[in-house]
Amino acid sequence: MSTLLRKWQLPFLMLGPFIILISLFFFLPVVLITVLAFTGMDSSMQWAFNGLSNFKHFINDPNIWHILRNTFTYVFFTLLINVFFGLVLGILTTYFIQKESVGLLFRTLWMLPRITPPVVYVLLWLWFFDPSQYGVLNSIRALMHLSPVKWLASNPMTAIILANGLIGASYGMIIFSSAIKSIPGDLFQAARVDGASQWAIIKDIIIPAVRWPLMFVTLWQLLSLLTSYEYILLLTKGGPLYSSEVLALYSYHKAFQNFEYGYGSALALVLVVVALIMSAILLKIFGMNKLMGSSRIE
Amino acid sequence: MEVTKKVAIRTRATETRKTSPRWKKRLPYIIAYGVLGITTLPIILMYLWLLVSSFAKQMKYGFIPVQFTFENWKFLWSNVEQAGTTYPNIWLATWNSFVFSGSLTILEVIIGGMAGYALSRLDFPGRKGLMKITLLLHAFPSVALLIAVFYILNFLGLFDSLWGVVLVKTALQIPMTAWIIKGFFDDVQWDVEWAGLIDGCSRFKVWYTIVIPLIKPGIAAVSIFSFLSGWSEFLLLYSFILSDEHVTLATYLQNLISNPNLIHYGLLSAVSLFYMLPVMILFIFSQKSLMQVSVGGGKRV
């Protein structure tokens, strides 16, 4: 008995705070949200169970198809920029720019949006799309004697896709460039001696080498894009009306703006289920060991 | 005669063949630099604008400074007042941001350090399972849990308090932090620990007197990363904090931006620069390791 106690004592001590924190703010919320999704809780914080009515409401919600379409458009195009442009940046800064210092400089510049606090980053975009003549786009129009346009009101989707795409691109860039760097250099030399064109080198050496990272980045970003909405909230608040509202933001708005905690939880539960399925796929494809390796920093 | 002529022709032929491919061979590199330069230019211009605009009285066409001034930086010594509303003191917001990021860093390093060590070195039932769960948590949509977290904070009486948000933020980041620190512990030789144990130290004492000093670089990287992510945090603070006395720089700036009566880019960019200063300084000093951590650990809520 006492040996058993001794064996458990140290892990218990070391892991205690960790387990308390993740139970309180990860596991308990999952349970709570599942229960809340079947209640009509509002600002009075009463547990009023109402069965499946939140989910019925979800299907019959007049905005929901529009929001689902927005979510799809937003995730698809942002992902396209993230993955494709991230790959372009990775190839350009590691393969075409042979000088390590220059490549690093460009990669550092591309990291700037990522390390900038979201509020400041969004301010830069607000300035870019400003409806008065002081905005970047409108001052270019002013040079050509055109009247200013309310860009954010007329193209909210484009704005949020561009702003999010630019940040995500640096994520792909870093993962891809480390994958490209690990390709042995004599492979490129052999290809060049054999007279391979640049395109052939990219197609036959680089792309196969980044196949797994490519898939990882796609799935990982898909997961993050589906469930995060911070930049949309800051840039357009989902508006005007519902034109740039996505599902995750809708859940947030329902709970924290309309105080419909029950319905908001039901929406969140849908997202959690989608995310869990995708995480399972992620783990299945990449296996535990690969992910374990990627969490190291050196 | 014939032979030399032929040779001359052949050499000329090879020469031309040599020069044209060389030019052609460089073309992809020139295009590569061009594409990279053009796509990076907007980013450079954006941040340049932020700097210039904070010192400019007026901007022609929105991006050419007309007259330089320190007027925009007045918020440092007097409160911002606009359209009848007085904004809270900037130093209060700065102090709150420091308290928030500082306590987040301390909590993360201590809790993450203990958990990382346990996951790396200690043998206990359920270790593998706990590791898998920790990893899954990182992929979990923490934003989707915001409503439930709100309920819990409300229940604990921690709503509208910086400490409550510190706890939530620590919890959201701790799975990844523990994993990163575990990676550093994995690299420490077992021999060091055996030596300590043979000399009569307890496991706990070995941990904090022998092993911890060996992973100082890792602790430093994790601390910087935690501090920065706390400093940049917006959504949690915006959702769970209401009162002015708990304002942080992120919410302060957001209040200024979202005021429709006040679109004063000079002031906004000056406050932004002030807010970004620690980020820039830390980034310059630790850019390489930070770039790697933010890929592994950057869980944006």
Write the layout of secondary structure elements.
The complex is a heterodimer of chains A (298) and B (301).
Chain A: H1 2-36, H2 53-60, H3 64-96, H4 100-115, H5 118-128, H6 136-143, H7 151-154, H8 156-181, H9 185-193, H10 198-209, H11 211-227, H12 230-235, H13 247-256, H14 261-294
Chain B: H1 2-54, E1 56-60, E2 64-68, E3 81-82, E4 85-86, H2 90-121, H3 127-138, H4 146-156, H5 162-186, H6 190-198, H7 203-214, H8 216-232, H9 235-240, H10 249-258, H11 265-297
Antiparallel strand pairs in B: 1-2, 3-4
Helix pairs in contact in B: 1-11, 2-5, 2-8, 3-5, 5-8, 6-7, 8-11, 10-11
Shape designation of chain B: globular
CATH architect. name of the largest domain in chain B: Orthogonal Bundle
Question: Overall mean pLDDT score of chain B?
Answer: 80
Largest sheet of chain A: none
The CATH superfamily name of the largest domain in chain B is MetI-like
**Helix/strand order of chain B, N-terminal first:** HEEEEHHHHHHHHHH
Tell me what portion of residues of chain B adopts beta-strand conformation.
under 5%
Terminal Cα span of chain B: 82 Å
The rough form of chain A would be described as globular
Give me the strand/helix succession of chain A. HHHHHHHHHHHHHH
- Helix/strand structural class of chain B: mainly alpha
